[in-house]
Write a structure and sequence with these properties.
The protein is an alpha/beta fold. It folds into two domains: 6-99 and 190-221, Nucleotidyltransferase, domain 5; 107-188, ATPase, nucleotide binding domain (Nucleotidyltransferase, domain 5, 2-Layer Sandwich), CATH 3.30.420. The chain is 34% helix and 24% strand. It has eight helices and twelve strands. It has helices at residues 39-54, 73-90, 99-105, 148-152, 164-168, 170-176, 192-204, 223-233; strands at residues 6-11, 16-23, 26-34, 63-67, 94-97, 111-119, 125-127, 130-133, 137-139, 144-146, 160-162, 181-182. The strands form two sheets. Strands 6, 7, 8, 9, 10, 11 and 12 form a seven-stranded mixed β-sheet that branches. A five-stranded mixed β-sheet has the order 3-2-1-4-5, sandwiched between helices.
Length: 244
């Protein structure tokens, strides 16, 4: 049983923006909105609305939980920066939750292998493999960013796939894993209540709640960083030739 702490949680790792206020395992209020690129505009307004509708204030919150990636570079930066500011301003503990761990929690009812997948763009997915006994999930692999073909290599039949990556690459998954199962498309959006529950579980297992040390998990460089790295690696054709 998860301790009945009042937890304010959010996920901004995908185009969806989700905020939840939970008391232990009980969801007091929750929103899931397709915010596109407007997380910075929507996040704090949603927090204010959630608290007001639930009849709570920030003074009542005992823990902050935020998804820390992998996922959208911009979305993760906005979510983590906002939650760090809330933690600092209100002297609240803050726990970072791996996005894929929170996604897997939403499907622990499935007895067997669970594979949450996010669209990583550039023909790749963010994914990990979990084993569930129907009430809890054990992580069998590290978070990865790779092609769907590489992710599926060696994966046994009967796995349950969920998330936007599973929807996007369903044809490839079905062709390589004929016994694959798929969660409904409503599972594409990670619900902040699962971030809250996973945050509490990780805190109970001894995870750090030092907000200052929290950082995003990207798994790869952004396109801008890749471009800068490629540019710096190009030979300078304007240099004078070296005479030996």
């Amino acid at each position: 049983m998860i301790a009945p702490m009042i937890t304010l949680a959010a996920d901004t790792s995908t185009p969806y923006c989700s905020v939840a206020l939970c008391e232990g395992e009980f969801v007091l209020a929750e929103t899931v909105v397709d915010a596109g690129r407007r997380h910075s505009e929507r996040l704090m307004a949603t927090v204010d609305w959630i608290l007001e509708e639930a009849g709570f204030s920030l003074d009542c919150v005992e823990l902050l939980a935020i998804s820390q990636g992998p996922g959208s570079f911009t979305g993760l930066r906005i979510g983590i920066a906002t939650w760090k500011a809330l933690a600092l301003a209100n002297d609240l503990p803050l726990v970072g939750v791996p996005t894929l761990d929170a996604m897997a929690r939403s499907a622990i009812f499935h007895r067997g292998v669970i594979c949450p997948l996010l669209d990583a763009r550039m023909s790749e997915v963010f994914g990990a493999v979990y084993e569930s006994d129907g009430s809890s999930a054990t992580k069998r692999s590290e978070d990865r960013v790779c092609s769907i073909d590489a992710f599926l290599g060696g994966l046994e039949d009967g796995a349950l796939f969920l998330g936007e990556g599973a929807v996007l690459y369903r044809d490839s998954i079905e062709s390589q894993c004929p016994g694959a199962l798929f969660a409904p498309e409503t599972y594409c959006a990670l619900r902040a209540s699962n971030v809250a529950l996973e945050g509490l579980a990780q805190l109970a297992s001894g995870a750090s709640y030092d907000g200052a040390a929290l950082d995003a998990v990207y798994l790869r460089k952004s396109q801008a960083e890749e471009a800068r790295a490629a540019s710096s690696a190009e030979p300078d054709t304007n240099q004078e030739p070296v005479v030996t």
